[in-house]
Amino acid sequence: MLSVIKKCVAHDEILSTYPVMRQLRPSIKDEDYLGIVTAMQETDRYQLVGAYTEDGQCVAVAGIRFRRSLFRGGERELYVDDLVTDEAHRSTGIGHDMMNWLKTECKKEGCVGLVLDSGLTRSDAHRFYKREGMESTALHFYRPKSPEPPEQDGGAAPSFLKK
Fold first, then answer.
1. End-to-end CA distance of the chain, in Å?
2. Exposed (0-12), middle (13-18) or buried (19+): which is 88, by Cβ within 10 Å?
3. For domain 2-161, is the CATH number 3.40.630.30?
4. Whole-prediction pTM value?
5. Edge-to-edge, what's the strand order for the sheet holding 76-85?
6. What is the 3-state secondary structure (H, E, C) of 69-102?
7. Measured on CA atoms in the order 87, 92, 96, 99, is the torsion positive or negative?
8. 51 vs 138, residue with greater confidence
9. How many angstroms separate the CA atoms of 47 and 29, rounded?
10. What does the DSSP assignment read for 18-60?
């Protein structure tokens, strides 16, 4: 049974979220997690939220930030970077409880809405978000920084490849 949903600030609280967060972000190593989260807290106003059972086990995690965007007319929104419920606790209402906590926080902070991106292949998550009243309104595009392309045929690479 869920006992509390709270912001995780202390190092031990942050570390308690790692086993669940690892299910969503498996590329982040255990030894790097605390440093990454604390750096994000300091530079990006990232906040980590954990849902805990009565015995203190973390069973869901959300990483959030408050931001403004021109798209929303400069209004403030709650952006969810990360949202995951432990695999063993899915379909038990914990994800719903976490979403309710996020919606309440959104309202409390005077935000116009709750925003998140989700991987295109995460169809179970998409169904969950729709059940929670969210709408799919955009696609997210990404281009990783890459090394300069080699020049070919003696000519310079097109300018769009140099960025």
1. 50
2. exposed
3. yes
4. 0.85
5. 2-8, 47-53, 58-68, 76-85, 114-116
6. CHHHCCCEEEEEEEEEECHHHCCCCHHHHHHHHH
7. negative
8. 51
9. 19
10. HHHHHHH-TTS-HHHHHHHHHHHHHHH--EEEEEEETTS-EEE
Residue 163, pLDDT > 60, answer no
Task: Report the amino acid identity of residue 90.
Answer: R
CB atoms within 10 A of CB 125: 17
54 CA to centre of own chain: 24
**pLDDT (mean) for 26-43:** 97
SS3 68: strand
**SS3 call for 155:** strand
- Which amino acid does the sequence have at 150? P
How far is Cα 17 from Cα 13, in angstroms, rounded to an integer? 7
